[in-house]
């Protein structure tokens, strides 16, 4: 088998960037040369890595299975350029769910970069579903998600427990009582995260568990928009306790107890064989900081 490093880099870049033209630009090649490299690699491996859908290139199942192995090879090659002095440096691509990216990741990165000043973080903020897709395509080194997930190729490791809270504005009819029973839950206008988010999946699962159907007034992909909508009296919300802590402390939002089971676990997502010293260092750092990080909230 004759496979070149150039072919592997073109494949990895195309999978990560989602476009052959972008991959060619990154690798300082013409599009025709990049396309030829992919064809040669597919011919050598004897299976397709991408399929063309309209004008888009979509990675095949065989390509997804191969990507972690190629990433591992490229990481090993790149490590030849790094002296074995234990230095942690380079780009760190992180895909994180909204709550984690907003309320936890800034502190984590600040401390990590203070320890390793040559690390350059690149953070993508999206929902749980898209974090999984980002790691699947090799577009991130590590993912941080809020919802339950399974994947046959990615390693998903529970990290820490979080709790969602049901909340309302201080002028809401249930604010003084501080609770919602099963019947009252069905009567509310709910302002929730969008489908595909970890927060929404936990909420929907909790509603199904007590056989209740929510009246969803709005489904929004921004936590601040949800909080402001609740403050405006448009309905009742459900978000992580981390995201409403300041408003609850100031008295602008009220937590409502309910029969809903809204506990969840944050998880780390990574390729099972990343062999990346920087990724490994960041994962170990996150695990070591968990207790002190959450004790501040």
Ordered list of secondary-structure elements with their pairings:
Blueprint: H1 5-17, H2 20-26, H3 31-45, E1 50-53, E2 56-59, H4 61-79, E3 90-97, H5 98-103, H6 105-115, E4 119-126, H7 128-136, E5 142-145, E6 155-169, H8 182-187, E7 189-193, H9 198-209, E8 215-220, H10 223-231, E9 236-240, H11 241-250, E10 253-256, E11 263-270, H12 277-295
Parallel strand pairs: 3-4, 3-5, 7-8, 7-9
Antiparallel strand pairs: 1-2, 5-11, 6-9, 6-10, 6-11
Helix pairs in contact: 1-2, 1-3, 1-4, 2-3
Give an overview of the whole structure.
The chain is of the alpha/beta class. The chain has helices spanning 5-17, 20-26, 31-45, 61-79, 98-103, 105-115, 128-136, 182-187, 198-209, 223-231, 241-250, 277-295; strands spanning 50-53, 56-59, 90-97, 119-126, 142-145, 155-169, 189-193, 215-220, 236-240, 253-256, 263-270. The chain is built from twelve helices and eleven strands. Strands 3, 4, 5, 6, 7, 8, 9, 10 and 11 form a nine-stranded mixed beta sheet that branches. The chain has a two-stranded antiparallel sheet with strand order 1-2. Strand 7 (189-193), helix 9 (198-209) and strand 8 form a beta-alpha-beta unit. Helix 1 packs across helix 3, helix 1 packs across helix 4 and helix 2 crosses helix 3. It is elongated, with a radius of gyration of 22 Å. The termini are far apart.
């Amino acid at each position: 088998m004759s496979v070149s490093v150039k072919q592997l880099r073109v494949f990895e870049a195309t999978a990560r960037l989602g476009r052959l033209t972008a991959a060619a630009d990154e690798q300082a090649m013409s599009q025709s040369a990049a396309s030829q490299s992919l064809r040669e690699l597919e011919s050598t491996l004897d299976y397709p890595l991408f399929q063309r859908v309209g004008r888009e290139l979509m990675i095949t199942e065989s390509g997804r299975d191969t990507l972690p192995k190629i990433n591992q090879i490229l990481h090993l090659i790149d490590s030849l350029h790094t002296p074995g002095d234990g230095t942690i440096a380079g780009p760190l691509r992180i895909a994180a769910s909204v709550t984690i990216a907003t309320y936890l990741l800034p502190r984590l990165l600040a401390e990590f970069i203070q320890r390793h000043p040559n690390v350059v973080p690149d953070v993508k903020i999206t929902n749980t579903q898209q974090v999984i897709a980002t790691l699947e395509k090799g577009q991130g080194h590590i993912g941080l998600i809020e919802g339950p997930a399974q994947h046959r190729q990615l390693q998903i490791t529970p990290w820490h427990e979080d709790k969602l809270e049901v909340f309302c504005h201080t002028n809401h009819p249930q604010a003084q009582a501080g609770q919602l029973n099963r019947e009252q839950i069905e009567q509310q206008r709910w302002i929730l995260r969008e489908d595909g988010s970890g927060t929404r999946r936990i909420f929907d699962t909790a509603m199904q568990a007590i056989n209740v159907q929510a009246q969803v007034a709005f489904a929004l992909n921004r936590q601040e928009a949800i909080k402001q909508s609740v403050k405006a009296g448009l309905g009742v919300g459900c978000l992580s306790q981390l995201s409403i802590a300041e408003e609850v402390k100031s008295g602008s939002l009220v937590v409502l107890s309910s029969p809903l089971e809204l506990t969840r676990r944050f998880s780390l997502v990574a390729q099972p064989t990343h062999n990346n010293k920087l990724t490994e260092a960041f994962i170990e750092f996150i695990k070591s900081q968990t207790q002190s990080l959450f004790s501040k909230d």
